[in-house]
């Protein structure tokens, strides 16, 4: 069994490559829930839905959220009716979110996700990091705001001073999945607001210290490939580099895959962890994703 820790963009790309070279039923994905929130009365779990749509091959790869070729009739009508949504939710995607919201009336989040996973014919297990609600606050020059206000309304522009989120208990199966795994892969997701909440979940760090953990850097040449990771790492006092990412994971990390642009960091990183692999970590197409997955899985495939 391989367990993967995931957010909603970088790691789902890697999952596309992994499921091509190992039996999907051998994969368990533990997903970030810190951004989960209500929009238009629906309980939206962005990273979970992206992972489910990716494993079901229906993800919109232009945005890394929502369903490909979806329509936005309800979203546009809501705007006309004067109750616009912060998130641009598609019509099929909305149906999926309505189903999850209804399931949550008498199921936990992890039970609801497992029912939706099966309804999409996905053989990999998908587990939310926790069944407990999280709350995240981004402290900026414009004052404290929610993750989506910062990301979407403010387009990640304001300067960030700090990030706070509450520590939650793991969902059933999270600690067991880590402990029973041949290897745990930390995908190239935002180390602060995607992987940070997962490794801060009670008992997860201790479990990671007992197994083989490999991570892929979401940073190359001092820059993230996308999104606000640089601002968040700076706010927490980490260098915006693969070295900074390595320091965030240093307590439990065994192997680290970094980009060719960071080969100058190899020696420094090897002082912290056993094994460094240098390769092209940019995933532009399925070939890239399979090549990177093969390097990470090594002798397992
Ligand atoms: C807003 C976004 O959060 P989320 O959608 O949850 O995304 P993740 O945290 O899962 O991933 C963002 C993370 O991914 C890195 N990324 C993107 N493409 C690539 C790639 O081709 N290779 C690679 N090694 N990393 C990639 C990117 O730099 C981001 O840091 C968010 O927080 O950004
Ligand atoms: O940046 C955006 N992210 C959108 N996201 C992604 C969401 O903001 C995620 O939290 C981020 O990708 C970070 O994980 C959506 C996710 C969904 O599940 C459904 C709809 C959306 C819509 C948007 C959007 O309009 N803009
Ligand atoms: Mg996310």
TrEMBL record:
<comment type="similarity">
    <text>Belongs to the CofD family.</text>
</comment>
<keyword id="KW-0808">Transferase</keyword>
<comment type="pathway">
    <text>Cofactor biosynthesis; coenzyme F420 biosynthesis.</text>
</comment>
<feature type="binding site">
    <location>
        <position position="88"/>
    </location>
    <ligand>
        <name>7,8-didemethyl-8-hydroxy-5-deazariboflavin</name>
    </ligand>
</feature>
<dbReference type="Pfam" id="PF01933">
    <property type="entry name" value="CofD"/>
</dbReference>
<dbReference type="InterPro" id="IPR002882">
    <property type="entry name" value="CofD"/>
</dbReference>
<dbReference type="InterPro" id="IPR010115">
    <property type="entry name" value="FbiA/CofD"/>
</dbReference>
<protein>
    <recommendedName>
        <fullName>2-phospho-L-lactate transferase</fullName>
        <ecNumber>2.7.8.28</ecNumber>
    </recommendedName>
</protein>
<dbReference type="InterPro" id="IPR038136">
    <property type="entry name" value="CofD-like_dom_sf"/>
</dbReference>
<comment type="subunit">
    <text>Homodimer.</text>
</comment>
<comment type="function">
    <text>Catalyzes the transfer of the 2-phospholactate moiety from (2S)-lactyl-2-diphospho-5'-guanosine to 7,8-didemethyl-8-hydroxy-5-deazariboflavin (FO) with the formation of oxidized coenzyme F420-0 and GMP.</text>
</comment>
<dbReference type="GO" id="GO:0016740">
    <property type="term" value="F:transferase activity"/>
</dbReference>
<feature type="binding site">
    <location>
        <position position="49"/>
    </location>
    <ligand>
        <name>7,8-didemethyl-8-hydroxy-5-deazariboflavin</name>
    </ligand>
</feature>
<keyword id="KW-0460">Magnesium</keyword>
């Amino acid at each position: 069994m391989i367990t993967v820790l995931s957010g909603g963009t970088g790691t789902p790309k890697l999952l596309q490559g992994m499921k091509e070279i190992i039996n999907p039923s051998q994969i368990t994905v533990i997903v970030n829930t810190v951004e989960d929130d209500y929009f238009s009365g629906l309980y939206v779990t962005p990273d979970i839905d992206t992972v489910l749509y990716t494993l079901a091959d229906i993800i919109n790869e232009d945005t890394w959220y929502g369903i490909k070729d979806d329509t936005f009739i309800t979203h546009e009508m809501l705007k006309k009716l004067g109750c616009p949504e912060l998130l641009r939710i598609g019509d099929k995607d909305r149906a999926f979110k309505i189903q999850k919201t209804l399931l949550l009336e008498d199921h936990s989040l992890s039970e609801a996700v497992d029912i939706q996973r099966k309804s999409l014919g996905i053989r990999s297990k998908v587990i939310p990091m926790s069944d407990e609600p999280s709350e995240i606050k981004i402290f900026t020059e414009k004052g404290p705001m929610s993750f989506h206000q910062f990301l979407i309304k403010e387009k990640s522009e304001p300067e960030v001073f700090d990030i706070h989120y509450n520590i939650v208990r793991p969902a059933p199966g999270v600690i067991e999945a880590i402990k029973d795994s041949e290897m745990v892969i930390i995908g190239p997701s935002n180390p602060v607001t995607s992987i940070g909440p997962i490794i801060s979940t009670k008992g997860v760090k201790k479990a990671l210290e007992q197994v083989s953990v490999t991570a892929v850097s979401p940073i190359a040449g001092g820059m993230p490939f996308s999104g606000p990771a640089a601002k968040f790492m700076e706010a927490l006092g980490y260098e915006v580099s693969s070295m900074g990412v390595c320091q965030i994971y240093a307590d439990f990390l065994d192997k680290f895959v970094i980009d060719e642009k960071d080969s100058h960091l190899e020696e420094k990183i090897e002082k912290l962890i056993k094994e460094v692999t240098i390769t092209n970590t940019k995933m532009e197409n399925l070939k890239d994703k399979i090549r990177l997955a093969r390097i990470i899985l090594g002798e397992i495939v």
